[in-house]
Fold this sequence. Notes:
By secondary structure, the chain is of the alpha+beta class.
Amino acid sequence: MKRLTTVSNSIEANLLQHKLALEGIKSFLTNENISTLLPHLNGILGHGIQIMVNETDYVKAREILTIAENEKKIKCPNCGSLNVGFGIRGKNRIGDRLLIILSALFAMPMGNIKNKYYCKDCNNDFA
C-alpha cells in the first residue's frame, strides 16, 4: 500500500475515496477516527486523514487526484494568487509554533492550532 494524499477532514477524504471507487480503485483511510475526534491535534501533529491505495493503482489514482485538485483551485482572497500552500506558515507561524512547544511541554493542547491556507506571494493566512 502507498499513501496517495493526506486531507484535513473526513468529508474531503470520503469524497475522494468515492471518486477512486467509481474508477475501480480500492482504497482505505488511516487516521480518520483520531482526526475526527480530536481535530485540534491535527495541526499539532502535522498530519490528517491519509488515503492509501495499492501500488499497482497508484499512477491512475494520482491522475484522478490531479483532476480533483484542478477542480478546486484555491486563490488568495487578498491578492488573487494561485501560489497557495497549506500548513502552519504565514503571518502567525511563530505564535503557532510557540503554542505547539507549550502544548508538548505541558502535555495538553493549548489553543486551537489548525493548518491554514497561506499565500506564498503576500503572506496572507486564510481558511
